[in-house]
Design the sequence.
């Protein structure tokens, strides 16, 4: 009986998706090993241990019934929101920003978890709102507040990239819930009108990032140095790259943040277009699977959770790739499962674990 139960659980796992996740994570370790000049220290060893532990955690999370995520969506959102408030009062300052809570054994970045909590909270909200009421003003205020509060707190840290990720996941979930496009058009017009006010409230370094994005060559050795060196590294890789451990931009310290935000450039220099297509192909497998899970889900909550989390993962990937190729301002978004760092990897693997749970639950009923 026990063997039969384990056999059923193993058959429930999306092995193709798991293979894609392990492939991306393992490739990231290879890139980090090379970025350190052919050494497991200081990045690859730590990242490998995190990846192994969090991969097991992802599989454990995939066993959580969807009805529990429905039940705990609001408490989880409230807990993460309280943590964001605590960051403002007690948070540790690193790299010029107050984004981390020191809990003794580790430093936690609550804003990462809000990317998940906002989707869960909005999915629960719209699960109980009749479709014909979704476009009414009275039904729009709660989701707007749910999005605005954490986004504003994260902007204060300041962390523009994470604030945009939270807003993107939230707005996408609202759109998928059936809110009319006219509301989004109106919101877009209002946002455009508010740009001068937003510009005046931005920090000096944030304004500089936008200006450098528009014209990187204007300060190629200063504020535009990151993106200039990133483009050189990516372009020099050609079709198949310079070869493992043979990167020059990264090994000669021309490429800043080579293990985090600009790790795709580090990879592309040594593995070329072939390496880039490998990463894109693996993520395409993961995203297509997540979208299929959403389309097959019978309940509104399950559909919105799976699709909203898929959109959040897509945002991670798209913005990082646009950032390192000069198509978007540098906003500090890591490349999922590849960039060095624990908080972002934890968020992505929890995200995938929740989607796996949605897939596993199938037609299981949801309750309040």
Sequence:
């Amino acid at each position: 009986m026990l063997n039969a139960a384990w056999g059923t659980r193993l058959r429930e796992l999306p092995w193709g998706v798991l293979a894609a996740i392990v492939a991306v994570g393992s490739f990231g370790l290879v890139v980090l090993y090379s970025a350190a000049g052919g050494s497991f220290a200081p990045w690859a060893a730590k990242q490998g241990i995190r990846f192994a532990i969090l991969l097991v955690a992802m599989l454990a999370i995939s066993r959580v019934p969807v009805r529990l995520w429905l039940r705990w969506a609001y408490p989880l959102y409230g807990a993460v929101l309280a943590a964001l408030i605590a960051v403002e009062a007690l948070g540790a300052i690193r790299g010029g920003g107050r984004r981390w809570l020191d809990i003794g054994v580790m430093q936690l970045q609550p804003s990462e978890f809000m990317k998940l909590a906002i989707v869960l909270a909005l999915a629960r909200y719209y699960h109980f709102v009749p479709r014909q009421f979704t476009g009414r003003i009275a039904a729009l205020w709660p989701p707007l507040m749910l999005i605005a509060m954490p986004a504003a707190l994260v902007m204060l840290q300041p962390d523009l990239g994470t604030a945009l990720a939270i807003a993107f996941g939230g707005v996408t979930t609202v759109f998928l819930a059936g809110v009319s496009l006219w509301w989004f058009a109106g919101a877009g017009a209002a946002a455009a009108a508010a740009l001068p006010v937003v510009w005046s409230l931005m920090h000096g370094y944030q304004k500089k990032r936008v200006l450098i994005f528009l014209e990187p060559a204007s300060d190629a050795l200063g504020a535009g140095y990151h993106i200039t060196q990133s483009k050189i590294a990516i372009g020099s890789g050609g079709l198949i790259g310079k070869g493992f451990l043979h990167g020059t931009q990264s090994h000669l310290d021309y490429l800043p943040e080579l293990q985090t935000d600009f790790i795709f450039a580090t990879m592309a220099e040594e593995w070329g277009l072939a390496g880039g297509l490998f990463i894109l192909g693996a993520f395409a497998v993961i995203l297509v699977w997540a979208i299929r899970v959403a389309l097959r889900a019978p309940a509104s909550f399950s559909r919105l959770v799976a699709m909203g989390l898929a959109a959040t993962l897509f945002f991670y990937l798209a913005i990082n790739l646009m950032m390192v190729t000069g198509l978007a301002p540098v906003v500090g978004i890591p490349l999922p499962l590849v960039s060095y760092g624990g908080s972002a990897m934890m968020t992505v693997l929890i995200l995938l674990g929740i989607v796996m749970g949605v897939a596993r639950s199938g037609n299981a009923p949801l309750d309040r």
Summary: The radius of gyration is 21 Å. The mean pLDDT is 85.
